[in-house]
Amino acid sequence: MKCILYTIVFGLFFFQTSLAQSTSESEESIATCEDGIQNGDEKEVDCGGEFCEPCIRTAEEMDNITVLAYPNPCASQVSFRCMLGDISSIKLYSADGILLYTSGGINRKDVNIDLSSMESQILLARLDINGRTVQKKIIKM
Fold it and tell me: With a threshold of 0.85, does the pTM exceed it?
């Protein structure tokens, strides 16, 4: 009788432990929209994807869009990295306002542009990011 009782208690203990482990494993694979972590199919931390609310920016956040342009000055290639939102299009203008380069439908945070065929000059880059225009001065050597 004592052996049966130990077997039942031992079995219940392992069942409860394995149930807790499988629950925690399944919770890790699902996006939780309030955990402060970008997981599951979230587009950013706790927003976007199938289960979370869409990622919406306040006007103040949109006014502070940071775009890096590097290397600057550049010889043959310039790269742009947007810290908030995706770059949807880029236009490069000469100092006297002539459109030299245009690219649309990008929708990425990182973009590289080959400038090797351009002469040395100062360029104005206009980037469209989430409906806003950000300008950067580029020095092509």
Answer: no
